[in-house]
Write a structure and sequence with these properties.
The protein is mostly helical and 62 residues long. It has one domain. It has three helices and no strands. Pfam families: CsbD. Belongs to the UPF0337 (CsbD) family.
Length: 62
Amino acid sequence: MSLELKLKGNWNELKGKLKEKYGELTDDDLTYAEGQEDQLLGKLQKKTGAAKEELRKMLFEK
């Protein structure tokens, strides 16, 4: 089920913010391909234990 989400802002900037907040994330964890937003959210949620809604707001809402 596609969420049809679009990342807000510059992905490199968002990666930096995620790494600051969740120091355990690696570059591999933050590999993003257009159209794979659901997979990215799932991977981040599993790795960080953060709520999906928290991650969604951080990444996709302006």
